[in-house]
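Box S1 | Example of a co-folding query
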Amino acid sequence: MIEIYPYNESIPANCPRCGAESKDIGELFFQGTHVLSEQNCRDCGLDFYATLPIGHAALFPVAFSRNGNHFRYNREEGSWMVRPLIESFQNESDAQAEIKLLQPNPGGDLILVNCLDSCFGHVFTKLWNVYLLKKQFPSKTLAVLVPARCRWLITDGEVEIWSVDLPLEEMGKCMLGLDAWVKEQFRRFASVALSEVPVHPPLEGLDFEEILRARPFALEDFDHQPLQVTFIWRSDRFWLNSRLLDFLHKASIKFGFQDPVRRLFCYRQASLLGQLARKLRKSLPEARLVVTGLGKEGRLHWRCQDERVEAIDEAVERTWNEIYRHSQLVLGVHGSHMLIPTALSAGFVEILPRHKVPHLTEDIGRHHRGRMGHFLGRFVDEFSSPDLVARHVVSMVKGFGRVYKGLDEEIPKSEKILGVES
Ligand SMILES: [Zn+2]
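Box S1 (continued) | Returned holo structure for zinc ion
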């Protein structure tokens, strides 16, 4: 926790020009996703910003001069986070957002959780901290800075919501007026501390039913509920199972020609899904197949419930959640869009691009204990065929009862029935 009101801390940083250690000048700046300390190098006189160790900036700290000419950060691993931040100061396109105060509290000692982010998955996992902090510090007041679109994920009526109405893709920009608005709120409180917002908070103690207002699939019902398998579609990340198309996909990202080839990739993904559906129908004729996700390109020429949309809002999220919590299995390519589906379904098969291997499990919502964890949580290579994916699905559905029975020896019955996660 970083005490920011009253602000007495002096956060050290290394000057991005000369490398000398500097201490901030006592001012913070709320950029949006990031909170920055204003710094002045005593050696060379450079004015610069340094990120506070919050969210991803705790993993990839960055210091940069206000004119953007000097920066210091981990280029190998941190570029994805740092580039938008530096650009947000270089471009003139500041974002004009409407900021609203909801569920205000009378005062007290505040803990502020900044969940602003341009990636839905990041917002979702950052928000878990709100629920964990609430349990850890019941006497403190909690406030959360959150994109308006994700407000529905705060189900606790006592948590103060600072809602920023801006499309998620614009959340990386400098937000006009945010800094002044946030500091104005501080005046209502005796003190304000900023949560470090760990981006991989522990899953223990998290109750997805409370967060999502949807009860996750209970394992005891696996063999009794109608069989449903759901694929989560994306129109910007694909299951291609082709080295040539994979090469073309990577080239299109590198050289910026994604739009002209997207249709081809969507067509290919829909075709693979069709092959998968035919194989599943043979072995599991009773299965209902559902497709959710963002983007309707790629026609599905096989019998399924197509729940894809062109734009997501709360009503869509809630409809999808009902689908996930009634799905024995969800399938999809690795990504933050898998977090909620895997939190609510019984199990999953995730298609894992090789460059995502270091990020295995980061997008998985819940983990079952013991052997069930491996049995119901499968990762397959990006070049897996529909036949291989179908084999996993069929073996999970048909073999579930046997593994579930065996859990008696592994896990106390009370935990087994509740499907308690480790
Ligand atoms: Zn310097």
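Residues 15, 17-18, 20, 41, 43-44, 46 surround zinc ion (CB under 6 Å). Residues 228 and 327 are 5 Å apart (CA to CA).
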